[in-house]
């Protein structure tokens, strides 16, 4: 039995950050990883997906800027895009990620880790003892829907879609969440004929105008969008993959991508050995501790609080601080409604805080102010034209509780909105944060004008 102060199970972004912080503070730390150091984000999600999306985004923007548009005479070099993607993910080899851990004194243990008792993690025949704490950072995996024939056709999930070495001539995408929307955007820009099959609309968790604007742009790029048609069966034959829809119609393509959600990897973590439920997300308190287990922490997607890489890193800092005696309790805004999110479609989508629907469900009386993202001097230079900035103002407290922005390259707009919401900055004070001219950040000035301040 090997003994450490802390054992971390899962070397994705959250696990890496927690292990690094604890080791730098002088604790002995082991991190257990059964797949790749860096996790889903580095190899199969955030990094490769943005590498596939960025070239098409730049090309489209250039085509909307006079002068630059005339210089753009061809399409994307697909081979170059894929080679750059492969470089960024280390050709699916995590050798470049490991030094970040070892340089900080973290011991890397390869294999699947599971709890076998209090403060004990088994990896194969070896047992790692944690003198102080165990942190579980196991993440999630793609969930397959209950559709006849789905397992037999072996569809793509995010893993295959983000790492494919060839672009299929045609692709069916089932699912209208972030993965479905982004991969539809990526593959149509890379030359696939894409059919997008949606149950209840595109990006349904965001403001209504978001899905409408993204769908309109995708349709203009040639995507066949089938809304309100739930797949009932799939089959693969010499012609490709055929999906039968609820109305009896069929769609056939070379490949099928299923993007219908994620499921936590809580099974086979040995949670039952310490009296914790073994299915679904694992409940934690504001310190990221499992109730009733003062030595056990769960961070990142596995706890279901906010399924984003940046939130996993934030929760890692909270757990590490608690173990080190430097508590940093999760703010309800930062780790819940205030979680910022970016969707790299065209137009880009950024949001933080409540939507109109969730604000109403929370019983908030809000004033809704919509501003054209490009409707200012700065917008006249961008390669966009389509975009809406929606601000939700809590009329009782005079603070922002939600911001959603669509438009060209709006991802960098998000931090200002996040600070305003998480910091609960009064609108009256925010009014004195003057946006520079001529930038699209003047949309904040337009907000103040609408509010009459």
Percentage beta strand: 25-35%
Shape summary: globular
Low-confidence stretches: none
The pLDDT mean sits at 94
- Oligomeric status: single chain
CATH superfamily of the largest domain: FAD/NAD(P)-binding domain
Largest sheet: 8 strands, mixed
Gyration radius, rounded: 23 Å
Distance between the termini: 66 Å
Structural class assignment: alpha/beta
Number of strands: 22
The proportion of residues forming helix, as a percent range, comes to: 25-40%
- Count of separate DSSP helical elements: 14
Query: Which fold name is given in CATH as the topology of the largest domain?
Result: FAD/NAD(P)-binding domain
Q: How many domain regions?
A: 3
CATH top-level class of the largest domain: Alpha Beta
CATH-defined architecture of the largest domain: 3-Layer(bba) Sandwich
Chain-wise SSE layout:
Elements: E1 2-9, H1 13-24, E2 29-33, H2 39-44, H3 46-63, H4 68-71, H5 78-88, H6 98-102, E3 107-110, E4 113-117, E5 120-123, E6 126-136, E7 140-142, H7 158-163, E8 170-174, H8 178-189, E9 193-198, H9 208-220, E10 224-227, E11 231-237, E12 240-245, E13 250-253, E14 255-258, E15 262-264, E16 289-290, E17 293-298, H10 309-323, E18 341-343, E19 348-353, H11 356-361, E20 366-372, E21 388-394, E22 399-407, H12 414-422, H13 427-430, H14 443-451
Parallel strand pairs: 1-2, 1-6, 2-3, 6-17, 8-9, 8-14, 9-10
Antiparallel strand pairs: 4-5, 5-6, 7-15, 11-12, 12-13, 16-17, 18-19, 19-22, 20-21, 21-22
Helix pairs in contact: 1-10, 3-5, 3-8
């Amino acid at each position: 039995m090997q003994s450490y102060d802390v054992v971390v199970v899962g070397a994705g972004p959250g696990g890496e950050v927690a292990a690094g912080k604890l080791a730098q503070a002088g604790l002995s730390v082991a991190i257990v990883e059964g797949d790749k150091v860096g996790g889903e984000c580095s190899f199969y999600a955030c990094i490769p997906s943005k590498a596939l999306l960025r070239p098409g985004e730049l090309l489209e923007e250039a085509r909307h800027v006079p002068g630059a548009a005339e210089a753009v005479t061809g399409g994307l070099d697909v081979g170059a895009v894929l080679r750059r993607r492969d470089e960024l993910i280390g050709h699916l080899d995590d050798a470049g990620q490991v030094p970040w851990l070892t340089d900080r004194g973290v011991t890397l243990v390869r294999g699947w880790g599971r709890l076998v008792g209090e403060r004990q993690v088994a990896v194969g025949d070896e047992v790692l003892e944690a003198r102080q704490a165990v942190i579980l950072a196991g993440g999630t995996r793609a969930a397959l829907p209950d559709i006849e024939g789905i397992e037999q056709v072996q569809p793509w999930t995010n893993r295959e879609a983000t790492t494919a070495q060839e672009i299929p001539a045609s692709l069916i995408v089932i699912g209208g969440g972030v993965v479905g929307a982004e991969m539809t955007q990526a593959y149509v820009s890379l030359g696939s004929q894409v059919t997008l099959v949606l149950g209840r609309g595109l990006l349904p968790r965001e403001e209504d105008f978001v899905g409408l604007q993204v769908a309109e742009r995708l349709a203009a790029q040639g995507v066949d969008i089938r809304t309100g048609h739930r797949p009932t069966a799939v089959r693969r034959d010499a012609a490709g993959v055929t999906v039968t829809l609820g109305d009896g119609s069929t769609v056939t393509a070379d490949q099928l991508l299923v993007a219908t959600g994620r499921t936590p990897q809580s099974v086979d973590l040995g949670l039952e050995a310490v009296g914790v439920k073994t299915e679904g997300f694992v409940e934690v308190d504001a310190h990221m501790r499992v109730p009733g287990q003062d030595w056990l922490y769960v961070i990142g997607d596995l706890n279901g609080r906010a399924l984003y890489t940046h939130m996993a890193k934030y929760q890692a800092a909270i757990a590490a601080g608690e173990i080190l005696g430097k508590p940093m309790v999760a703010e309800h805004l930062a780790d819940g409604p205030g979680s910022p999110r970016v969707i790299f479609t065209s137009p880009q989508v950024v949001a933080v805080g409540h939507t109109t629907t969730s604000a109403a469900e929370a019983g908030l009386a809000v004033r809704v102010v919509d501003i054209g993202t490009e409707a200012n001097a700065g917008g006249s230079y961008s390669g966009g034209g389509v975009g809406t900035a929606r601000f939700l103002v809590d009329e009782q407290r005079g603070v922002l509780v939600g911001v959603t922005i669509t438009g060209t390259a709006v991802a960098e707009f998000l931090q200002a909105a996040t600070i305003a919401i998480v910091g609960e900055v009064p609108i009256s004070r925010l009014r004195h944060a003057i946006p520079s001219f001529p930038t699209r950040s003047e949309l904040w000035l337009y907000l103040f004008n609408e509010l009459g301040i």
